[in-house]
Amino acid sequence: MKLNYDGQEKINATREQVWTFINDPNKVVYCLPDLQKAEIIDDKNFAAHVKVGLGPVRGKFKFTVTLEPKPDEDKMLVKMRGGGLGTVIDLEAGADIKQQADSTTVLDWTGEAEVRGPAATVGGRVLDRKAKELITHVFAEVSRNLNEQHA
């Protein structure tokens, strides 16, 4: 099952502050919901073990995440692959990073996920709702962390 998402997040920090934060796997990994374990592989890759509950599919999933910064384009690409309990999830996402006149930054993001296995059978609406909740959580955590750093 393929799912597509887009959205926008306004962050109360400058473009440079946002860029520094989202390029640091040690910071990004802790924005994931229900994180159980984090493994930093190098300066662009990490593994995350998270608890997932999606209809009857509940348990721990492991994901590997690659950050692919495109500074010349003011864009961050993220690739995530993993799963658990017979489910496989592949996600590719990107965010355009736009400095605003009021010293805030807007992230215009898009993403496409492919889900295979038991989680794909719970139904499009349930899966879609949960995926949107997870994406919203990650961006809200990025924003919260940056707001705390610069308060």
Structural commentary:
- There is one protein chain.
- This protein has 151 residues and is α+β, with helices and mostly antiparallel strands.
- The chain has one domain (2-149): Alpha-D-Glucose-1,6-Bisphosphate, Chain A, domain 4.
- Helices cover 25% and strands 50% of the residues.
- It is built from three helices and seven strands, in the order βααββββββα.
- The protein has a seven-stranded antiparallel sheet.
Topology (SSEs and partners):
Blueprint: E1 2-11, H1 15-22, H2 25-28, E2 35-40, E3 45-54, E4 57-70, E5 75-84, E6 87-99, E7 105-116, H3 124-149
Antiparallel strand pairs: 1-7, 2-3, 3-4, 4-5, 5-6, 6-7
Quick synopsis:
The chain is α+β, with helices and mostly antiparallel strands. It has helices at residues 15-22, 25-28, 124-149; strands spanning 2-11, 35-40, 45-54, 57-70, 75-84, 87-99, 105-116.
Write down the secondary-structure element order. Answer: EHHEEEEEEH
Uncertain ranges: none
Report the CATH C-level class.
Answer: Alpha Beta
Name of the CATH superfamily: START domain
Mean pLDDT: 89
Choose one word for the global shape: globular
Measured by DSSP, the beta-strand proportion falls in: over 45%
Q: Which range best describes the helical content: under 10%, 10-25%, 25-40%, 40-55%, 55-70% or over 70%?
A: 25-40%
Return the CATH architecture: 2-Layer Sandwich
- According to DSSP, the number of beta strands is 7
